[in-house]
Design the sequence.
DNA sequence: CACCTTTATAGTCAGAGTGACTATTAAGGA
DNA sequence: TCCTTAATAGTCACTCTGACTATAAAGGTG
């Protein structure tokens, strides 16, 4: 911002950059981490799967663009999508990441509870959830973006209350534990997990009236809602190594 | 990346975005956190101080641009600057953040040991280190970027070995402790800090021959170098609350 | 219906890590 | 020589965690 623009800020005098957003939208389905992908209908990478995303419009911020795309691709209303957790990951700016032109992309990660299969509407040829553990190569540098997103989400679960974003409004501690186990790919000790969650003020709060979820196999579990806290002190560390 | 470009990817057909980098370059001087700022020589914000930065060139990545600007502003060679720790913070894309045109900026944070005052070379009217705790309002949204950078650095000290990046090649544990105290703005217990650092494998390693730094006021301190580890397990948590 | 399986919940116990200390050592300065 | 300063060594209690065992309450099966 300190140097003069090439050719003194004439907006059309230099080779322009396109700015896009890419979204890594995660959910937990049946104990597996899933990610929303769209099938590319045109070259390059025609027929490949890619992260949803699109161009940032002239009068919107990258985050607004991300929320708009998220609403379009998931079929949620913009109001609902506006309430979702959306986290800016990082920006990818390799000069050759798109063979057509110079595209700088701001990547976001979103966490959603289990949603219905997306309608194939919009401009994408098709959109569906994929098991994040069994993916073929994606278009562009989206493998890298997806890996970065997974790392970030995993790290964030350690020191934030973000895991509740994967859960429906009311959930059991077993469901919350499964979020951690699914994202981290490990098994956790149930009593210890329970103790940690319940002794962290504001992580979860019991639903009034102490209802229980019946119909399962074992003893009915108590229901909880997300609490007011956002950070976890001390953190809930993964059994082994780290990321980032 | 899934939607068609406006006007089918004709690079000049839509209003272009400029892409810049902004750098928050931190150092510790005399027990205070300092940040490198440049004085703006032209409107808007003429006479205000701003983060160093500049345009991303057509054939370079944002990170390359950041390293190039860092070398220019600090007077270091590109080789030296290439070895410095540079961390992508986030991207700022508010449509009105620059009154002249649409500028999307990728912000980076850099940590350097105490350096000489920068020469006023390059295109900036002037460049100098400022005490990060006593700053007037900066140009553009740079106050916000600087605050985000400070938060990120503080959080990273907790779970990484990054603090050694603020230190010269050989340093005492007291100097390392002062990095933590300066960035966090707290005082730490010396024996406890020492115990934590020394029992974390790979955080620091004693300089061979066990030399000591004499000339100070008290007992000479042993010298250490940065170790091979990059992550801190378990983390070195701040006395009180959190960030991010 | 008795019994097994499954899941939730309660509780115990030892070890690691940390915060708050006190004590000792080794330099410079008055 | 004594005082001040800073580094280093060590203690102790408390918290948190990992690894357990035990009990409760549902569904399923013969």
Sequence:
């Amino acid at each position: 911002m300190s140097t003069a623009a090439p050719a003194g800020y004439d907006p059309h005098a230099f080779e322009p950059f396109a700015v896009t957003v890419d979204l890594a939208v995660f959910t937990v389905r049946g104990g597996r981490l899933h990610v929303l992908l769209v099938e590319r209908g045109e070259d390059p990478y025609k027929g490949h799967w890619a992260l949803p995303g699109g161009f940032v419009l002239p009068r919107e911020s990258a985050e607004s663009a991300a929320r708009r795309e998220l609403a379009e691709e998931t079929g949620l209303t913009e109001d609902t999508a506006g309430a979702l957790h959306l986290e800016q990951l990082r920006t990818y700016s390799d000069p050759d990441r798109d063979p057509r032109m110079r595209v700088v992309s701001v990547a976001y990660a979103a966490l959603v509870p289990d949603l219905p299969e997306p309608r194939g509407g919009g401009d994408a040829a098709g959109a569906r959830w994929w098991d994040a553990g069994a993916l073929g190569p994606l278009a562009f540098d989206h493998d890298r973006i997806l890996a970065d997103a997974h790392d970030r989400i995993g790290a964030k679960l350690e020191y934030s209350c973000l895991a509740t974003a994967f859960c429906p409004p009311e959930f059991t501690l077993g469901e919350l534990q499964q979020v951690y186990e699914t994202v981290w790919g490990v098994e956790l000790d149930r009593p210890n997990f329970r103790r940690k969650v319940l002794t962290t003020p504001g992580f979860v709060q019991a639903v009034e009236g102490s209802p229980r979820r019946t119909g399962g196999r074992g003893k009915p579990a108590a229901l909880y809602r997300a609490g007011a806290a956002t950070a976890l002190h001390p953190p809930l560390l993964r059994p082994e190594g780290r990321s980032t």
Summary: The domain at 158-226 of chain B is CATH 1.10.10.10 (Arc Repressor Mutant, subunit A). The two ends of chain B are 28 Å apart (CA to CA). Chain B has two domains: 17-136, 158-226.
